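Final report, closing paragraph on structural work. Over the funding period we assembled a curated collection of sequence-structure pairs, and we close with a single example.
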Amino acid sequence: MKIAKNNVVVMHYAVSDSEGTLIDSSYEDEPMAIIQGTGYLIPGLDDAILGYKMGDKFEVAVSCDQAYGERFDDYVQTVPREALAGVEDLGLGTQLRATTDDGEQTVIVIDVQDDEITVDGNHPLAGLDLSFDVEIIEVREATAEELEHGHVHVEGGCGHNH
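Its predicted structure, as stored:
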């Protein structure tokens, strides 16, 4: 069976940046299971897996505009430490929820000084062209329940109280 919209796809992947630096991999862990076309994968990878079948191994280059988008300098802001009073852990890499003009957004602490904190609202992979090594482990029709819930169910159900 070739991968088509709304198929369950179980796959291993390794993703690297344009310099070849490994960012993440499932090969040493469990493969990822998704429903194709439901928005779980970045658009460039979601589209690229169409037509492949179980056992296929391939590479996919995904430009930043089809991955996590462009990086925007104005998403980086420095705020007075007092503005974050009450937040206990303000170390590098701490993720915070911030209210912005565009609604709630996750920001990451990228610099900590005595009197100010710098946060970045860009996705950590924004602005990067990515390369994926993919191995398709399984392809099957999604069940009606999986399509209704929007995610793959494992044996025994989905583990959610729907």
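The radius of gyration is 19 Å. The domain at 7-68+126-149 is CATH 3.10.50.40 (Chitinase A; domain 3). We thank the funder for supporting this effort.
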